[in-house]
Write a structure and sequence with these properties.
heterodimer, B: 5 helices, about 0% strand
């Protein structure tokens, strides 16, 4: 093969069985590397629901913290690692149930967060219980200016004349 | 088994309730609460960036929380090491060292779980909770055997 060969011309070359096997083995070995690890939901447009989904996941965590306070009795003040752990440091009596509950809240938030970054936010619905549009009886419109990514609006979300979202 | 002497209890407490260690653990716990959005002062809807969307990497606040958890583990290991060198009944020493090391393992497991990349299934959450809970329960069981050395604290 000369340096001036076009790649198309190379297709017409005759390859030996050894060359074909080597090429095949190379593809098999390199396949995992060819599947480039992409960050979750990094594709354009997939982020429209992320804000609301993450907001909902965090709100669920706060509810979870409050629930943990009720585990094994106690005040309804949301628990944290400091409140659960420090009083018993290092080997004092720590409520195992509360500790487990808090660990669970943290890991669940981490899992939810990952789901939120997937394409389509893993089926997140802003109208779901605890979601940004939970109590919205009008139109639930995407709104980047809103802290939770959505706004409840009397106008249609596709109304070009009116908008509830600051900045459009 | 004979009860520990006052001097032996004092030796142990000097290690366990060392003002510096307690202060460092308080700081680390407080940092974890803030970094993971668990502190009461956390504004509604805010919290850690578990994963940076553009890169898929773990967020800096979560990494920092993980480091704080590892600091707690390190303090507990240091205390275990210090207790290991005390002249107290061997069985008591063994239980104390074991309890502290097990608690250190629980914090290390938390630290690792927080910065683990990739999806976290319900089964993985259950499995991680089982590991952390296992260490904590075993630590509590060991600590119960040496309660004479410990300052009674509330269960919150």
């Amino acid at each position: 093969m000369t340096g001036t060969d076009h790649w198309f011309d190379r297709l017409t070359y005759r390859y030996t069985r050894r060359q074909a096997l080597k090429a095949g083995a190379g593809i098999v070995l390199a396949w995992p590397l060819l599947k480039v690890a992409r960050p979750p939901a990094a594709t354009a447009g997939a982020g429209s629901c992320q804000k609301g989904c993450v907001w909902t996941a965090r709100a669920r965590s706060v509810t979870g913290q409050a629930t943990c306070a009720g585990v094994a009795g106690g005040a309804s003040v949301p628990v944290s690692f400091l409140s659960v752990w420090l009083g018993g440091f290092p080997l004092g009596l720590i409520s195992a149930a509360r500790e487990r509950c808090l660990d669970s809240v943290v890991l669940q938030q981490k899992a939810d967060y990952y789901d939120c970054l997937q394409p389509g936010c893993s089926g997140f619905d802003p109208k779901q219980a605890g979601g940004p549009c939970d109590s919205c009886s009008n139109n639930c419109c995407a709104c980047s200016a809103s802290s939770n990514g959505y706004i409840c609006c009397v106008f249609g979300c596709d109304d070009t004349q009116h908008s509830c979202c600051p900045g459009g | 088994m004979t009860a520990p002497t006052k001097a032996q209890i004092t030796q142990v407490r000097r290690v366990l309730y060392n003002r510096s260690s307690v202060g460092q653990v308080r700081d680390a716990l407080s940092s974890i609460d803030v970094l993971l959005g668990l502190a009461p002062s956390t504004p509604s809807g805010s919290g850690p960036t578990w994963i940076i969307p553009d890169t898929g990497q773990i967020g800096p606040s979560v990494i920092e929380a993980s480091r704080a958890a590892l600091r707690i583990a390190s303090i507990l290991e240091q205390e275990a090491s210090a207790i290991g060198g005390l002249s107290i009944p061997a069985a008591d020493r063994s239980h104390l060292v074991r309890a502290l090391n097990l608690q250190a393992s629980a914090w290390t497991a938390r630290a690792k779980a927080w910065v683990r990349t990739g999806p976290l299934s319900a089964a993985q959450i259950t499995s991680t909770l089982k590991i952390i809970g296992g260490y904590e329960s075993a630590a509590a069981a060991a600590a119960t055997k040496v309660s004479a050395y410990l300052i009674a604290t509330g269960t919150h």
